[in-house]
Amino acid sequence: MRIISGLYKSRKIIAPKNLPVRPTTDMAKESLFNIINNLYYFDDISVLDLFAGTGNISYEFASRGTNNITCVDQDFGCIKFINQTAEAFYMPIQTIKIDVFKFLEKSTLQVNIIFADPPYNFSDVQFAKIPELIFQNNLLLEDGILIVEHSKHTDLSSLINFSYSKSYGGSVFSFFEIV
């Protein structure tokens, strides 16, 4: 994986092969950040990266100037890799090792952008629980968005506060907003 833009543009980050991850492709990530770039100033926002995996999305935010980034993942290897990478690049990324659903049930953190990249094989019930907990617990700031990455075989358009989706190859980003 590589960082698309910003301070660390073109830097390659190689994750250990034993991590249980499916990193967002460079093409999909570039398209996603083009959308976000039209909505926010990166240095003015806070980000919560759920099911953070390798930290790929968080590194992109940090490279573009975001200084308030929190990564949540339950896998120790993923958290360790994110911490090592963030330290090596002096990136302002905090990590929390916990099950994402437990985190969402207890958290009082409020951010501008929540990015969730759960396993593509999640059930409809598991996918639905993500926006449900986020909006129920007011984890987004007033101008905030939730972005859920999922397979093109999953349709999230019936979920609470769904706004629109964008498709890139086999991946889809579904956007949710406070209404």
UniProtKB/TrEMBL annotation:
Entry keywords, A to Z: Methyltransferase, Transferase
Record flagged with keyword Methyltransferase: yes
Short name of one Pfam family: Cons_hypoth95
Keyword Transcription regulation in annotation: no
CDD domains: AdoMet_MTases
PROSITE patterns: N6_MTASE (PS00092)
Name recorded for this polypeptide: 16S rRNA (Guanine(966)-N(2))-methyltransferase RsmD
